[in-house]
Backbone:
């Protein structure tokens, strides 16, 4: 059993499980650490997430374009010849700040797990504390953890460095700060104050239990003035926005862009998208390749 935000190790790299839809008997993986010259290295967060440049050459498992998510990901068979270790977020809470944060927020133990560098044993003295909140009430629980435990004088949920980088790269104004997959704060971890990155996963069940839908890219098109109808899952990355096009047709747009993860119902955007057909789903589905405009309600 492998949970979302769990990590796996291969002979040359450490990966995070990506999403909850996976090919049968395999896992979709996003590179987080690679081994070179006897040391572990972490590629830049933004570079790793958009799968650009030399990062692609660091994968030691086959890469595959996953049209369901709109990016290329590592695909590894779940066997001992490929996956040499699995790191479970809920098995790593002992000795961490997670239990005390749960108690302070009135949450049951087992709700919050440890992820990131502390999960895989690659944290250094000043590393952030990465936690993941599991379950349908995860965003509310995460906000409560920060409300009760954050030592930061800033707002509890701030725009992440990745989002600021996105804004500077493509010049699109960030519409607002909303709940999303990463909350930030500062908490006390033993005798130290430590930066906290708080993630969210919909379920603590097996992340490979939902099969990857068979999908086919139809072609690229420019969707103009698409209106968000239901952004209830906007805190998920990857996730999906239910939208309608300018001529009133219902469509679904996959969130693979941090700008889209911040949109609320009624917001409008334009994007260059790849259309994806998923059988037997007749609704139009798209993966946003480049967001070209964002307009608030």
Residues:
């Amino acid at each position: 059993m492998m949970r979302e935000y769990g990590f796996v190790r291969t002979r040359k790299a450490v990966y995070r499980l990506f999403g909850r839809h996976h090919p049968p008997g395999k896992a979709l993986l996003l590179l987080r650490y690679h081994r070179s010259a006897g040391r572990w290295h972490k590629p830049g967060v933004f570079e790793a997430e958009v799968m650009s440049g030399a990062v692609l050459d660091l994968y030691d498992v086959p890469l595959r374009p996953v049209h369901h998510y709109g990016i290329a990901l590592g695909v590894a068979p779940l066997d001992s010849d490929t996956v040499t270790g699995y790191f479970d977020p809920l098995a790593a809470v002992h000795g961490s700040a997670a239990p005390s944060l749960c108690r302070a927020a009135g949450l049951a133990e087992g709700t919050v797990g440890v992820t990131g560098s502390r999960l895989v044993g690659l944290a250094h003295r000043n590393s952030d504390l990465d936690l993941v909140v599991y379950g349908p009430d995860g965003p509310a629980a995460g906000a409560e953890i920060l409300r009760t435990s954050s030592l930061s004088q800033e707002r509890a949920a701030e725009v992440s460095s990745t989002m600021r980088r996105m804004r500077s790269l493509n010049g699109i104004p960030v519409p607002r700060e909303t709940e999303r997959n990463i909350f930030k704060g500062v908490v006390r971890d033993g005798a130290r104050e430590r930066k906290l990155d708080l993630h969210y996963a919909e379920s603590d069940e097996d992340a490979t239990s939902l099969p990857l839908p068979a999908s086919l890219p139809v072609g690229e098109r420019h969707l103009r003035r698409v209106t968000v109808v239901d952004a209830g899952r906007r805190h998920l990355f990857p996730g999906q926005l239910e939208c309608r096009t300018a001529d009133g047709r219902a469509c679904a747009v996959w969130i693979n862009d941090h700008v889209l993860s911040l949109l609320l119902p009624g917001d409008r955007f334009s994007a260059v998208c790849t259309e994806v057909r998923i059988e037997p789903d007749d609704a139009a589905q798209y993966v946003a390749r480049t967001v070209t405009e964002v307009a608030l309600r």
Summary: Helices lie at 45-49, 98-105, 117-120, 138-149, 161-170. Residues 138-149 form the longest helix (12 residues). Residues 117 and 232 are 29 Å apart (CA to CA). Confidence is low (pLDDT under 50) at residues 154-162.
